[in-house]
Amino acid sequence: DIPSLAEAYAGLFPIGAAIEPAHTSGLRAELLKKHVNMIVAENAMKPASLQPAEGRFNWEPADRIVEFAKANGMELRFHTLVWHNQVGDWFFLDPEGKPMVDETDPEKREANKKLLLERLERHVRTVVERYKDDIRSWDVVNEVVEPGDPDGMRASPWYRIAGIDYIETAFRAAREAGGPDIKLYINDYGTDSPAKRDRIYELVKELLDKGVPIDGVGHQTHISIHGPSVSQIIESMKKFSELGLDNLVTELDMSLYAWNDRRDYGSDIPEDILRKQADRYRELFEAFRENKDIIGGVVFWGIADDHTWLNNFPVQNRTDAPLLFDRQLHAKPAFWAVIDSAGQE
Ligand code: G3I
Question: Where does the record place the GH10 domain (predicted)?
Protein backbone atom coordinates (compact mmCIF):
# COMPACT_ATOMS: atom_id res chain seq x y z
CA ASP A 1 0.00 0.00 0.00
CA ILE A 2 1.44 3.32 -1.03
CA PRO A 3 1.23 6.62 0.88
CA SER A 4 -1.30 9.31 -0.01
CA LEU A 5 -0.04 12.46 -1.73
CA ALA A 6 -2.65 14.67 -0.12
CA GLU A 7 -1.83 13.28 3.32
CA ALA A 8 1.89 13.75 2.76
CA TYR A 9 1.25 17.41 1.97
CA ALA A 10 -1.37 18.02 4.65
CA GLY A 11 -0.45 21.18 6.51
CA LEU A 12 1.59 22.43 3.55
CA PHE A 13 -0.93 22.94 0.74
CA PRO A 14 -3.73 21.03 -1.01
CA ILE A 15 -2.88 18.67 -3.85
CA GLY A 16 -5.30 18.66 -6.75
CA ALA A 17 -6.09 17.11 -10.11
CA ALA A 18 -8.07 18.01 -13.21
CA ILE A 19 -10.76 15.50 -14.10
CA GLU A 20 -13.51 14.73 -16.61
CA PRO A 21 -17.03 13.76 -15.47
CA ALA A 22 -16.34 10.13 -16.47
CA HIS A 23 -13.51 9.98 -13.92
CA THR A 24 -15.93 10.15 -11.00
CA SER A 25 -16.37 6.38 -10.95
CA GLY A 26 -14.18 3.33 -11.36
CA LEU A 27 -10.51 2.76 -10.61
CA ARG A 28 -9.46 6.30 -11.43
CA ALA A 29 -11.97 7.66 -8.94
CA GLU A 30 -10.38 5.47 -6.25
CA LEU A 31 -6.94 6.80 -7.15
CA LEU A 32 -8.23 10.37 -6.93
CA LYS A 33 -9.94 9.79 -3.59
CA LYS A 34 -6.73 8.46 -2.14
CA HIS A 35 -4.31 11.08 -3.42
CA VAL A 36 -5.97 14.44 -3.96
CA ASN A 37 -8.04 16.82 -1.88
CA MET A 38 -8.75 19.34 -4.61
CA ILE A 39 -10.55 18.86 -7.94
CA VAL A 40 -10.88 20.99 -11.05
CA ALA A 41 -12.86 20.24 -14.22
CA GLU A 42 -10.53 19.69 -17.16
CA ASN A 43 -13.22 20.78 -19.65
CA ALA A 44 -16.68 20.66 -18.11
CA MET A 45 -16.75 24.21 -16.73
CA LYS A 46 -15.40 26.04 -19.75
CA PRO A 47 -17.75 28.54 -21.40
CA ALA A 48 -18.62 26.34 -24.40
CA SER A 49 -19.49 23.49 -22.11
CA LEU A 50 -21.60 25.52 -19.65
CA GLN A 51 -23.36 27.81 -22.15
CA PRO A 52 -23.11 26.23 -25.63
CA ALA A 53 -25.81 28.51 -27.02
CA GLU A 54 -27.02 31.84 -25.71
CA GLY A 55 -29.26 31.30 -22.70
CA ARG A 56 -28.98 27.51 -22.85
CA PHE A 57 -27.02 26.21 -19.88
CA ASN A 58 -25.67 22.69 -19.68
CA TRP A 59 -25.01 21.93 -16.01
CA GLU A 60 -25.09 18.16 -15.85
CA PRO A 61 -21.40 17.30 -16.57
CA ALA A 62 -20.16 20.08 -14.28
CA ASP A 63 -22.58 19.09 -11.53
CA ARG A 64 -21.27 15.52 -11.58
CA ILE A 65 -17.81 16.80 -10.79
CA VAL A 66 -19.12 19.03 -8.00
CA GLU A 67 -21.04 16.13 -6.47
CA PHE A 68 -17.98 13.87 -6.62
CA ALA A 69 -15.82 16.42 -4.84
CA LYS A 70 -18.43 17.13 -2.18
CA ALA A 71 -19.14 13.45 -1.54
CA ASN A 72 -15.42 12.93 -0.91
CA GLY A 73 -14.65 16.05 1.07
CA MET A 74 -12.47 17.55 -1.64
CA GLU A 75 -12.11 21.24 -2.35
CA LEU A 76 -13.03 22.46 -5.83
CA ARG A 77 -11.49 24.94 -8.24
CA PHE A 78 -13.35 26.54 -11.11
CA HIS A 79 -11.78 26.64 -14.62
CA THR A 80 -12.60 28.98 -16.37
CA LEU A 81 -15.10 31.82 -16.71
CA VAL A 82 -13.34 33.45 -19.67
CA TRP A 83 -11.10 31.97 -22.36
CA HIS A 84 -10.50 32.43 -26.09
CA ASN A 85 -10.75 28.65 -26.64
CA GLN A 86 -13.74 26.46 -25.94
CA VAL A 87 -16.10 29.42 -26.00
CA GLY A 88 -19.24 29.52 -28.13
CA ASP A 89 -18.95 31.62 -31.31
CA TRP A 90 -22.32 33.12 -30.44
CA PHE A 91 -20.62 35.39 -27.89
CA PHE A 92 -18.90 37.28 -30.70
CA LEU A 93 -21.70 37.56 -33.29
CA ASP A 94 -23.67 40.78 -33.65
CA PRO A 95 -27.51 40.74 -33.72
CA GLU A 96 -27.38 40.12 -37.47
CA GLY A 97 -25.11 37.13 -37.04
CA LYS A 98 -22.00 38.90 -38.34
CA PRO A 99 -18.64 38.49 -36.55
CA MET A 100 -18.18 41.52 -34.30
CA VAL A 101 -14.45 41.60 -35.00
CA ASP A 102 -15.14 42.52 -38.65
CA GLU A 103 -17.17 45.61 -37.79
CA THR A 104 -15.59 48.90 -38.91
CA ASP A 105 -18.37 51.40 -38.19
CA PRO A 106 -17.46 53.13 -34.88
CA GLU A 107 -21.04 53.35 -33.63
CA LYS A 108 -21.72 49.70 -34.33
CA ARG A 109 -18.40 48.76 -32.75
CA GLU A 110 -19.49 50.54 -29.58
CA ALA A 111 -22.85 48.74 -29.59
CA ASN A 112 -21.13 45.40 -30.18
CA LYS A 113 -18.78 45.95 -27.28
CA LYS A 114 -21.72 46.74 -25.02
CA LEU A 115 -23.55 43.59 -26.13
CA LEU A 116 -20.46 41.41 -25.63
CA LEU A 117 -19.90 42.73 -22.11
CA GLU A 118 -23.58 42.16 -21.28
CA ARG A 119 -23.32 38.56 -22.47
CA LEU A 120 -20.15 38.10 -20.47
CA GLU A 121 -21.67 39.56 -17.34
CA ARG A 122 -24.71 37.31 -17.65
CA HIS A 123 -22.51 34.24 -18.08
CA VAL A 124 -20.34 35.11 -15.09
CA ARG A 125 -23.27 35.93 -12.80
CA THR A 126 -25.26 32.82 -13.71
CA VAL A 127 -22.32 30.48 -13.22
CA VAL A 128 -20.95 32.09 -10.07
CA GLU A 129 -24.38 32.20 -8.43
CA ARG A 130 -24.84 28.50 -9.08
CA TYR A 131 -21.50 27.34 -7.67
CA LYS A 132 -20.38 30.01 -5.22
CA ASP A 133 -21.19 27.95 -2.14
CA ASP A 134 -19.34 24.90 -3.45
CA ILE A 135 -16.32 26.46 -5.15
CA ARG A 136 -13.96 28.86 -3.46
CA SER A 137 -11.15 29.24 -5.98
CA TRP A 138 -12.01 30.62 -9.44
CA ASP A 139 -10.10 31.10 -12.67
CA VAL A 140 -11.81 34.24 -13.89
CA VAL A 141 -9.72 34.82 -17.01
CA ASN A 142 -7.36 32.40 -18.73
CA GLU A 143 -4.41 33.21 -21.02
CA VAL A 144 -5.21 36.87 -21.68
CA VAL A 145 -1.60 38.06 -21.94
CA GLU A 146 0.55 37.41 -25.00
CA PRO A 147 3.79 39.39 -25.20
CA GLY A 148 4.00 38.90 -28.99
CA ASP A 149 0.60 40.50 -29.67
CA PRO A 150 -0.19 44.25 -29.83
CA ASP A 151 0.01 45.86 -26.34
CA GLY A 152 1.18 42.50 -25.03
CA MET A 153 -2.47 41.46 -24.77
CA ARG A 154 -3.71 38.36 -26.57
CA ALA A 155 -5.49 39.48 -29.73
CA SER A 156 -8.53 37.28 -29.03
CA PRO A 157 -12.04 38.31 -30.08
CA TRP A 158 -12.53 39.43 -26.46
CA TYR A 159 -9.69 41.90 -26.68
CA ARG A 160 -10.31 42.99 -30.24
CA ILE A 161 -13.93 43.82 -29.46
CA ALA A 162 -13.72 45.11 -25.89
CA GLY A 163 -10.09 45.93 -25.03
CA ILE A 164 -9.13 45.15 -21.44
CA ASP A 165 -12.63 46.09 -20.25
CA TYR A 166 -13.69 42.46 -20.61
CA ILE A 167 -11.20 41.48 -17.93
CA GLU A 168 -12.43 44.16 -15.57
CA THR A 169 -16.08 43.22 -16.22
CA ALA A 170 -15.42 39.55 -15.54
CA PHE A 171 -13.66 40.14 -12.21
CA ARG A 172 -16.19 42.70 -10.97
CA ALA A 173 -19.17 40.55 -11.92
CA ALA A 174 -17.60 37.51 -10.25
CA ARG A 175 -17.03 39.43 -7.03
CA GLU A 176 -20.52 40.92 -7.03
CA ALA A 177 -22.17 37.57 -7.64
CA GLY A 178 -19.87 35.53 -5.42
CA GLY A 179 -19.25 37.84 -2.49
CA PRO A 180 -16.02 38.41 -0.58
CA ASP A 181 -15.26 34.78 0.24
CA ILE A 182 -14.53 33.43 -3.22
CA LYS A 183 -10.96 33.82 -4.52
CA LEU A 184 -10.47 35.22 -7.99
CA TYR A 185 -7.49 34.30 -10.16
CA ILE A 186 -5.90 35.34 -13.41
CA ASN A 187 -4.50 32.14 -14.92
CA ASP A 188 -1.81 31.71 -17.57
CA TYR A 189 0.97 29.48 -18.87
CA GLY A 190 4.64 30.39 -19.18
CA THR A 191 4.38 32.76 -16.22
CA ASP A 192 8.04 32.08 -15.45
CA SER A 193 9.21 33.73 -18.68
CA PRO A 194 10.23 37.31 -17.88
CA ALA A 195 8.26 38.85 -20.77
CA LYS A 196 5.03 37.08 -19.84
CA ARG A 197 5.51 37.55 -16.12
CA ASP A 198 6.19 41.26 -16.42
CA ARG A 199 3.21 41.89 -18.69
CA ILE A 200 0.88 40.03 -16.34
CA TYR A 201 2.35 41.97 -13.44
CA GLU A 202 1.76 45.27 -15.20
CA LEU A 203 -1.81 44.33 -16.13
CA VAL A 204 -2.69 43.13 -12.64
CA LYS A 205 -1.19 46.23 -11.07
CA GLU A 206 -3.16 48.48 -13.40
CA LEU A 207 -6.38 46.62 -12.57
CA LEU A 208 -5.74 46.54 -8.81
CA ASP A 209 -5.08 50.29 -8.87
CA LYS A 210 -8.54 50.70 -10.43
CA GLY A 211 -10.07 48.62 -7.64
CA VAL A 212 -10.65 45.49 -9.72
CA PRO A 213 -10.90 42.51 -7.36
CA ILE A 214 -8.06 40.07 -8.13
CA ASP A 215 -6.84 37.70 -5.41
CA GLY A 216 -4.18 35.68 -7.11
CA VAL A 217 -2.26 34.38 -10.07
CA GLY A 218 -2.71 30.86 -11.39
CA HIS A 219 0.49 29.44 -12.84
CA GLN A 220 -0.39 26.62 -15.21
CA THR A 221 3.14 25.19 -15.01
CA HIS A 222 3.06 22.97 -18.08
CA ILE A 223 6.77 22.24 -18.02
CA SER A 224 9.11 19.59 -19.41
CA ILE A 225 12.07 17.65 -18.10
CA HIS A 226 14.20 20.21 -19.97
CA GLY A 227 12.94 23.41 -18.41
CA PRO A 228 12.26 26.03 -17.22
CA SER A 229 14.41 26.09 -14.11
CA VAL A 230 12.75 25.69 -10.74
CA SER A 231 14.31 28.92 -9.49
CA GLN A 232 12.73 30.81 -12.37
CA ILE A 233 9.31 29.40 -11.51
CA ILE A 234 9.66 30.41 -7.86
CA GLU A 235 11.07 33.83 -8.68
CA SER A 236 7.97 34.72 -10.64
CA MET A 237 5.71 33.66 -7.77
CA LYS A 238 7.68 35.84 -5.38
CA LYS A 239 7.16 38.79 -7.64
CA PHE A 240 3.37 38.39 -7.55
CA SER A 241 3.28 37.82 -3.84
CA GLU A 242 4.89 41.27 -3.44
CA LEU A 243 1.63 42.65 -4.87
CA GLY A 244 -0.18 40.88 -2.05
CA LEU A 245 -1.43 38.15 -4.39
CA ASP A 246 -1.74 34.44 -3.79
CA ASN A 247 -0.03 32.00 -6.17
CA LEU A 248 -1.52 28.70 -7.24
CA VAL A 249 0.03 26.01 -9.38
CA THR A 250 -3.04 25.24 -11.46
CA GLU A 251 -2.16 22.79 -14.26
CA LEU A 252 1.07 21.05 -13.39
CA ASP A 253 2.55 18.39 -15.66
CA MET A 254 6.06 17.60 -16.92
CA SER A 255 6.52 16.41 -20.50
CA LEU A 256 9.30 13.96 -21.30
CA TYR A 257 10.13 15.86 -24.46
CA ALA A 258 11.26 19.17 -25.79
CA TRP A 259 8.20 20.82 -27.36
CA ASN A 260 8.84 19.77 -30.96
CA ASP A 261 10.79 16.56 -30.37
CA ARG A 262 9.68 14.02 -33.02
CA ARG A 263 10.70 11.00 -30.90
CA ASP A 264 8.07 8.82 -29.24
CA TYR A 265 8.99 6.60 -26.30
CA GLY A 266 5.64 4.85 -26.51
CA SER A 267 5.19 2.39 -23.65
CA ASP A 268 8.95 1.88 -23.47
CA ILE A 269 10.17 4.93 -21.60
CA PRO A 270 13.94 4.76 -20.88
CA GLU A 271 14.82 4.43 -17.19
CA ASP A 272 17.06 7.46 -17.25
CA ILE A 273 14.24 9.62 -18.59
CA LEU A 274 11.88 8.52 -15.82
CA ARG A 275 14.65 9.20 -13.33
CA LYS A 276 15.27 12.62 -14.76
CA GLN A 277 11.57 13.38 -14.46
CA ALA A 278 11.57 12.18 -10.85
CA ASP A 279 14.60 14.31 -9.98
CA ARG A 280 13.02 17.39 -11.41
CA TYR A 281 9.69 16.75 -9.67
CA ARG A 282 11.68 16.35 -6.46
CA GLU A 283 13.46 19.64 -6.91
CA LEU A 284 10.20 21.37 -7.80
CA PHE A 285 8.24 20.12 -4.79
CA GLU A 286 11.10 20.86 -2.43
CA ALA A 287 10.94 24.43 -3.66
CA PHE A 288 7.15 24.48 -3.32
CA ARG A 289 7.47 23.26 0.24
CA GLU A 290 10.08 25.86 1.10
CA ASN A 291 7.83 28.54 -0.36
CA LYS A 292 4.55 27.24 0.99
CA ASP A 293 3.73 30.66 2.43
CA ILE A 294 3.23 32.09 -1.06
CA ILE A 295 1.63 28.99 -2.67
CA GLY A 296 -2.04 28.23 -2.04
CA GLY A 297 -2.11 24.83 -3.71
CA VAL A 298 -0.69 22.56 -6.37
CA VAL A 299 -3.03 21.06 -8.96
CA PHE A 300 -1.95 18.48 -11.55
CA TRP A 301 -3.51 18.57 -15.01
CA GLY A 302 -4.68 14.99 -14.77
CA ILE A 303 -3.65 12.12 -12.52
CA ALA A 304 -2.31 9.28 -14.73
CA ASP A 305 -0.48 9.16 -18.07
CA ASP A 306 -3.28 7.40 -19.96
CA HIS A 307 -5.30 10.60 -19.86
CA THR A 308 -3.34 13.76 -20.60
CA TRP A 309 -3.71 16.55 -23.15
CA LEU A 310 -0.05 15.88 -24.07
CA ASN A 311 -0.78 12.53 -25.71
CA ASN A 312 -0.79 13.45 -29.43
CA PHE A 313 0.03 17.05 -28.65
CA PRO A 314 1.77 19.10 -29.94
CA VAL A 315 3.26 16.25 -32.01
CA GLN A 316 0.68 13.88 -33.54
CA ASN A 317 1.05 10.20 -32.55
CA ARG A 318 3.56 11.00 -29.83
CA THR A 319 2.64 9.63 -26.41
CA ASP A 320 3.77 11.49 -23.34
CA ALA A 321 3.97 10.61 -19.66
CA PRO A 322 3.91 13.88 -17.71
CA LEU A 323 2.12 12.81 -14.49
CA LEU A 324 2.91 10.83 -11.33
CA PHE A 325 1.01 7.64 -12.24
CA ASP A 326 1.56 5.55 -15.37
CA ARG A 327 -0.96 4.24 -17.91
CA GLN A 328 -1.88 1.34 -15.60
CA LEU A 329 -2.42 3.84 -12.78
CA HIS A 330 0.72 2.64 -10.98
CA ALA A 331 3.03 5.03 -9.12
CA LYS A 332 6.07 6.16 -11.14
CA PRO A 333 9.49 7.19 -9.81
CA ALA A 334 8.17 10.77 -9.93
CA PHE A 335 5.47 9.85 -7.42
CA TRP A 336 8.04 8.69 -4.88
CA ALA A 337 10.13 11.78 -5.45
CA VAL A 338 7.15 14.01 -4.68
CA ILE A 339 6.35 11.98 -1.57
CA ASP A 340 9.97 12.38 -0.42
CA SER A 341 9.86 16.11 -0.97
CA ALA A 342 7.02 16.50 1.50
CA GLY A 343 9.63 15.70 4.13
CA GLN A 344 7.15 14.15 6.53
CA GLU A 345 6.56 10.42 6.91
O1 G3I B 1 -16.03 16.70 -26.43
C2 G3I B 1 -15.55 16.43 -27.74
C3 G3I B 1 -16.09 15.13 -28.25
O4 G3I B 1 -17.47 15.24 -28.36
C5 G3I B 1 -15.45 14.83 -29.59
O6 G3I B 1 -15.84 13.58 -30.04
C7 G3I B 1 -13.92 14.82 -29.49
C8 G3I B 1 -13.22 14.61 -30.82
O9 G3I B 1 -11.96 15.22 -30.86
O10 G3I B 1 -13.52 16.08 -28.99
C11 G3I B 1 -14.03 16.37 -27.70
O12 G3I B 1 -13.57 17.62 -27.32
C13 G3I B 1 -12.21 17.67 -26.93
C14 G3I B 1 -12.16 18.16 -25.48
O15 G3I B 1 -10.82 18.37 -25.10
C16 G3I B 1 -12.79 17.16 -24.51
O17 G3I B 1 -12.09 15.95 -24.53
C18 G3I B 1 -11.49 18.67 -27.83
O19 G3I B 1 -11.43 18.15 -29.15
C20 G3I B 1 -10.10 18.93 -27.32
O21 G3I B 1 -9.54 20.00 -28.07
C22 G3I B 1 -10.17 19.34 -25.86
O23 G3I B 1 -8.86 19.55 -25.42
C24 G3I B 1 -8.73 20.25 -24.19
C25 G3I B 1 -7.97 21.55 -24.42
O26 G3I B 1 -7.78 22.22 -23.18
C27 G3I B 1 -8.69 22.48 -25.37
O28 G3I B 1 -7.90 23.56 -25.70
C29 G3I B 1 -7.96 19.38 -23.22
O30 G3I B 1 -8.74 18.24 -22.89
C31 G3I B 1 -7.63 20.16 -21.95
O32 G3I B 1 -6.75 19.41 -21.17
C33 G3I B 1 -6.96 21.47 -22.31
O34 G3I B 1 -6.74 22.19 -21.12
C35 G3I B 1 -6.03 23.42 -21.24
C36 G3I B 1 -6.54 24.35 -20.17
O37 G3I B 1 -7.94 24.48 -20.27
C38 G3I B 1 -5.89 25.72 -20.25
N39 G3I B 1 -4.45 25.60 -20.21
C40 G3I B 1 -3.88 24.67 -21.17
C41 G3I B 1 -4.52 23.30 -21.04
C42 G3I B 1 -3.87 22.30 -21.97
O43 G3I B 1 -4.10 22.64 -23.31
Answer: 1-341
Global ipTM? 0.94
Please write the tens of the pLDDT for every residue from 251-273: 999 999 999 899 999 989 999 99
Residues in contact with 249: Cβ distance below 8 Å, sequence separation at least 6, in sequence order: 219, 221, 288, 295, 297, 298, 299
16-69 per-position pLDDT tens digit: 999 999 999 999 999 999 999 999 999 999 999 999 999 999 999 999 999 999
Based on the residue annotation, tell me whether 251 is a catalytic residue of this protein: yes
Residue length of the chain: 345
Contact 220 CB / ligand 1 (< 6 Å): yes
Instruction: Name the residue with the closest Cα to ligand 1, atom 15.
Output: 43
Determine the Cα–Cα distance for residues 124 and 228; give it in Å rounded to an integer: 34
Q: What is the pTM of this model?
A: 0.97
Q: How many CB atoms within 10 Å of residue 337?
A: 21
> Is 61 touching ligand 1 by the criterion CB < 6 Å?
no
